[in-house]
Amino acid sequence: DERQIAVSAITGGAHCCALTKIAAPLGGGWAVVPGAMLDGDRGYAFEDVDADGIYELVSIDQSFLYAYASYAESFAPLVIERFAGKKIVEVSDDPRFRAALEEDLARLEETAAENPELWRSNGFLAAWVAAKARLGEREDAWSRMLASWDRASDWPLTICAAPRAPDGGCPAGMERPATFPEALEAHLDARGYLES
Questions:
Q1: Number of continuous H segments (helices) and E segments (strands) in the chain
Q2: Is the separation of the CB atoms in 81 and 59 below 8 Å?
């Protein structure tokens, strides 16, 4: 029954950032594992999502913030991680967490029910399609997105027209302008939001 210690600090600044480090016993000392730098002043929520007595690290997929719209118009799907073997691993797609993913999708859809113009917001649609994809409903969501995305948006979008470098960067001169559906498809595929 190994326990860990989590410490979070806030960096300050607009929309930024909480950094969490987790310390776990290792031999006669401690191993310190850095978590993600998360937007806002909360950092991870520590929740026993699947009620097994082990806390998960719950946050959102930061890659959706500013990707398709301003910060205020951005939405992001849920991310569930676990501290395992001296590292943090994402477990969002584990079937034990399906109910949490369904709740996240329901939260997004309730927000859109209260504010129907969100169905034409690229910042909202991106997160909604991702949330649906995690539940095996990407094709259905994609059809609705194609019928309603904001074609008049002037938010700059690009895709990489070549394989990305190991660090995720696009080779020089290989970025090209993209439509919202093109950019979203590349983003979802790169982040693993595939039909399950």
A1: 4, 9
A2: yes
Rounded to whole angstroms, how far apart are CA atoms 191 and 109? 22
Neighbours of 125 (CB within 10 A): 28
CA dihedral angle for residue 134, residue 139, residue 191, residue 11, rounded to 10 degrees = -70
d(CA 104, CA 132): 10
Which long-range contacts link 106-112 to residues 24+ away (Cβ below 8 Å)? 108/75, 111/75
Cβ atoms 21, 44 nearer than 8 A: no
Q: What is the mean pLDDT of residues 24-42?
A: 82
Backbone torsion region of residue 26, taken as left when φ is above 0, otherwise alpha when ψ lies between -120 and 50, otherwise beta = beta
The partner residues of 82 in beta bridges, in order of sequence, read 89
Hey, which bits of 62-135 come out as E strands?
78-84, 87-90
Could you read off the pLDDT of 43-99 as tens digits, one per residue?
Answer: 889 999 999 998 999 999 999 999 999 999 999 999 999 988 788 999 999 999 999
Distance in Å from the first CA to the final CA of the chain: 33
pTM of this structure = 0.88
DSSP string, 122-172: HHHHHHHHHHHHHTT-HHHHHHHHHHH--TT-----EEESSPPPTTSPPPT
